Amino acid sequence: xxxxxQVLLLGGDARGLxxxxxxxxxxxxxxxxxxxxxxxxxDGAVRAEMSEDLFTSVDALVLPAVGTDDDGKIxxxxxxxxxxxxxxxxxxxxxxxxxxxxxxxPYLRNLCAKHGVRLVELFDRDDVAIYNSIPxxxxxxxxxxxxxxxxxxxxxxxxxxxxxxxxxxxxxLQGLGAKVKVGVRREEHFARAYEMGFEPFYLKxxxxxxxxxxxxxNTIPTMIxxxxxIANLPSRAVIIDLASKPGGTDFRFAEKRxxxxxxxxxxxGIVAPKTAGRIIADCxxxxxxxxxxxxxxxx
Length: 299
What we know:
six-stranded parallel β-sheet
């Protein structure tokens, strides 16, 4: 239980509703800002206006999937007011407070480092990333179906990267009957892809493998689907880039060439916000509980 633990949650989207529900179920004292346009109940959480006073006694500060932008602004889909996390806000946090977010940009990292506040990026964790790969893969398949006139079954698909998302996506496509090529860098990934029944190749040879594919899924957040690669794709091909912005595709050249290319980061929160919210809520509640127990033991 989180009885007596004070949590401040700022902004976010529908995933945050699951986080609020979980934390209040565990008896945490939850205060939220950035939900003034939400007309439904918040499961016992206290609504408040953004002010420095909110930060003085919190044990955990919870920010959205992308904590802030480069100017400190916080996404808040349930509010028409601008939420900005400032230096003065973070300065008010108790030293034992932990800041939780999905992923942090330099602005947030620098603020936390300046004031000696612990920052936890949930999307860096293997468990969260692997759970999130499930709605990501389903969302990618949904986009593929919506943007092609063929079935996934029997199609020629390529997945670049066999990390936590790429592995789940390749296996999902294979389960739907696609022929799946997987681009890898490491020998052990090549061996694992082969063992799983994929057709592996090394990314340095990408140019030689793209001439006859229907769907190209990229999970690598560096420029890899270059103009040269796109020029070698068949005109029917569709590119779905799942990497974080700005992705790893030359979208300008794809448009010029008439190749359909889409950047689709953050699919879990779009296609399955309830599931994605539960993934975050379960991990977050465990981490806050561990922090609370450590403080109770004087560590």
